[in-house]
Amino acid sequence: MRRILMKTLTTLSAAVVLILNSHAVFADREHNLFERYDTNGDKVITQDEVQAAKTVFFSEADTNNDGFLSIEEFQAGLKKQQQQLQNTVFATFDSNGDNAVSIAELEAATGGKREAQLLKLFKKIDSNADNSVTQAEWQTFKTTMQEKQADKKDARQEKMFSKMDLDKDGKLSKDEFVKHLPFFNRLDSNEDGVVTQEEILQLVQKRDKKLKE
């Protein structure tokens, strides 16, 4: 059975909040945003690249091919995207490629940062205390976290959907979805129309500081 220790974005559980905010992870591997959006590999993300990625998301999420996203299609698309992110982050920690994440790999990937917090989390997921996290253990932990956060998560997604639904017709057109770029604009701190690794690192550092306060 595959062993796994991970979860993700935004809408993320405590596990990913701890992990994705690690400076070492950013330094050792390209940030997941770059892996997803920097399609030409020039180390900057443009609005066109983000919009192209969102167009792909829209096409895949529009399962009835009517040219619009319902709230159900939108939420299902986010769930699929989050699963893909889980796999990406897991690969970052699984340094020896054996489909398992050990405590040693976890600590090495984070450069020793938040060692106590990560160890506590690892032990919490490792229900049989054998120092490895199986897929079954992870799924149990994830399900518990999702149940606790379900109402808040649904509310956040519904709020996001409502903001994008400019004509308030209860569905998202491709134009409404693709051109909605608040996260890009927030990352583009110098407002030059592109997002650099440095700008993403600045956001990571700010979140890291808040977690320490």
From TrEMBL:
Q: Where is the signal peptide?
A: 1-27
Alphabetically sorted, this entry's keywords are: Metal-binding, Repeat, Signal
Give one GO molecular function term.
calcium ion binding
Question: Does the keyword field hold Nucleotide-binding?
Answer: no
Q: Which domain of life is it from?
A: Bacteria
* Domain EF-hand, residue spans: 57-84, 113-148, 152-187
The protein's matches in Pfam families, at most eight in alphabetical order, are given as: EF-hand_5, EF-hand_7
Keyword set includes Cytoplasm: no
PANTHER family named among the record's database cross-references: 45 KDA CALCIUM-BINDING PROTEIN, RETICULOCALBIN
List the protein's name: EF-hand domain-containing protein
